[in-house]
Each structure stands twice: as structure tokens, then as C-alpha cells.
Specification:
heterodimer; A: about 110 residues; mainly beta; 11 strands; about 0% helix; B: about 120 residues; seven-stranded mixed β-sheet; four-stranded antiparallel β-sheet
């Protein structure tokens, strides 16, 4: 099946720093989604992207749909302790029946 | 806000038991999904349903079955639980039309341990 490569696998950052993570695919995607999962909870949808080049913000979070349609990026500005969690990308290509999920980026924010 | 609830947060069952995991959504979503989540393997789709009484196999349906008798409820059944089914189980739902069908909303998960 299709695979998404999400990087980095984990990040340790200081409170107040900005964070960047990305997701890449070997095939073209027409939809990109970013989720956050708190420990012991289900993923929560943060941002959905539907057009190549699209840049969408949700508070301190900004996500971009790469112009090649094979990647997406998530940035978090001025990180705070509650940003801790696992961030997942997910995508859909025309040939797939359902979403493909990345393996997640574990974010730790140090005080 | 979309609300997806799952019947149990934590469940411990013995090998060979029949296990029912229930999921209910309150937003009139047509699509419902069951995933399992394991460290290093991410989210893997077990089954999904586009409508009442309809079901389709996902990537890892072996050892599982599902039931959707009402639009708001989607049940995952482990006919004879095995230790390799110890996992976090996540239910999700979405609308069926246009781009919104890709926006899946998840429940809090059920952590199942099979001993």
C-alpha cells in the first residue's frame, strides 16, 4: 500500500521555540490532513489541505500543501507545554480507498 | 462539535473470549471506521462502513468483524480474542460528500489487553 514518510520521529524543544515537521509520499496526494494525539486519547484534526500550494493556519499552527503534491509541512510557532503529543499527517490520493497515515512525530516541550 | 464516543477506555479480556467494541457518533456521519494503533506501526484500518448494514474490509480485517445496524453506531467484534490483538482501537467517522469525507473525527480510543 501507499506509505507516508513523516519526519522527524521525535523532537525535544525548549518552550517558546518554533517547530517544523514534514510528511512525504512517493505518489501524488490530493488531500493532506494533520492530526494531534494527546497521550491516551484519540487523534484530533488540526488542519485540512486540499490544494497544492495551500497554506492554512489554525492559531499558532500553520500547514502547507507542497506544490509537488507529494509533501506537506506543519509548523508550530512559540511552542508551549500543551503542544506535547504525537502529530500525525494523513493523506489521500485518487487511487486509494481511504486515508494513509504517517507514523507520527513525538513532540516534547521542555520548560 | 463532532462527538465520537467509545464504550470503554480500557478493557482486559482473556484469550478466546468474544469481545465487542462499540462506537457511537452524534453528527449524522455516513462513514465510520475502525483502526488499531500500535507503536511503530501507526494507524491501520481494520474495517469501514459507508452506510447502515454496509461494510468493507480495510488493510487488516483478519480476526475481526463489524456490525452497523444503525447509522450512528459501528461495532467491532473480535470473535476469539488473541494476545496479538492487544492494541489501542480507534473509531472514527466522517461525512460522505466532497472533500469533507476525508476529514475523519476520532473517538478517545479503547486500550484492549488480551491475556
Amino acid at each position: 500500500g501507499q506509505q507516508l514518510n513523516q519526519s522527524p520521529q521525535s523532537m525535544f524543544i525548549q518552550e517558546g521555540e518554533d517547530v517544523s515537521m514534514n510528511c512525504t509520499s512517493s505518489s501524488i496526494f490530493n488531500t493532506w490532513l494533520w492530526y494531534k494525539q494527546d497521550p491516551g486519547e484519540g487523534p484530533v484534526l488540526l488542519i485540512a489541505l486540499y490544494k497544492a500550494g495551500e497554506l492554512t493556519s489554525n492559531g499558532r499552527l500553520t500547514a502547507q500543501f507542497g506544490i509537488t503534491r507529494k509533501d506537506s509541512f506543519l509548523n508550530i510557532s512559540a511552542s508551549i507545554p500543551s503542544d506535547v503529543g504525537i502529530y500525525f499527517c494523513a493523506g489521500h490520493s485518487g487511487s486509494a480507498r481511504q486515508l494513509t497515515f504517517g507514523s507520527g512525530t513525538q513532540l516534547t516541550v521542555l520548560p | 462539535d463532532v462527538k465520537v464516543t467509545q464504550s470503554s477506555r480500557y478493557l482486559v479480556k482473556r484469550t478466546g473470549e468474544k469481545v465487542f467494541l462499540e462506537c457511537v457518533q452524534d453528527m449524522d456521519h455516513e462513514n465510520m471506521f475502525w483502526y488499531r494503533q500500535d507503536p511503530g506501526l501507526g494507524l491501520r484500518l481494520i474495517y469501514f462502513s459507508y452506510d447502515v448494514k454496509m461494510k468493507e474490509k480495510g488493510d487488516i480485517p483478519e480476526g475481526y468483524s463489524v456490525s452497523r445496524e444503525k447509522k450512528e453506531r459501528f461495532s467491532l467484534i473480535l470473535e476469539s480474542a488473541s494476545t496479538n490483538q492487544t492494541s489501542m482501537y480507534l473509531c472514527a467517522s466522517s461525512l460522505s460528500g466532497g472533500y469533507l469525507r476525508y476529514e475523519q473525527y476520532f473517538g478517545p480510543g479503547t486500550r484492549l489487553t488480551v491475556t
